[in-house]
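Page 37, continued from 36.
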């Protein structure tokens, strides 16, 4: 398996994974947005070069210095529980450290907050709603080197 990085434009391989996981499986709409045009996208391919996971990162527009947001982390159902989500996050964190980022925030589905907690993220805001699904903002301060 390998992870590819795309610094401009949402690749078709990421669209396939996100459409499958978020729209078809979980019932979300409005999955694709303008942030896709400015984000850096990561896509994991299996041994047959098929996309199986994706996520994106982008600079936090809130004004917090050297802060990034990780989003749209999706792993195809048949590949879950194989550490792939954690590997995707590690790749994104490495990229963010390399471009000078110091922290990462994410808007997690509450049902996935335990997964993010195991990866070093802590809740930083109250639970809110996104498209009828409870979400919570979580944050991680990045170490200089890992």
């Amino acid at each position: 398996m390998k992870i590819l990085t795309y610094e401009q434009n949402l690749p078709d391989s990421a669209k396939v994974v996100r459409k499958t996981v978020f729209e078809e499986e979980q019932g979300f709409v409005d999955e694709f947005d303008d942030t896709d045009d400015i984000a850096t996208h990561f896509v994991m391919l299996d041994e047959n070069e098929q996309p199986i996971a994706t996520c994106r990162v982008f600079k936090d527009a809130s004004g917090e210095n050297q802060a990034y947001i990780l989003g749209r982390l999706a792993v195809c159902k048949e590949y879950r529980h194989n550490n792939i989500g954690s590997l995707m996050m590690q790749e994104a964190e490495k990229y963010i450290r390399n471009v000078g980022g110091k922290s990462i925030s994410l808007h997690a589905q509450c049902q996935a907050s335990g997964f993010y907690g195991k990866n070093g993220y802590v809740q930083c805001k109250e639970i809110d709603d996104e498209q009828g699904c409870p979400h919570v903002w979580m944050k991680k301060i990045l170490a200089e080197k890992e």
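Strands lie at 2-6, 40-45, 51-59, 67-75, 103-109, 122-123, 128-130, 133-141. Flag for discussion at group meeting. The two ends are 21 Å apart (CA to CA).
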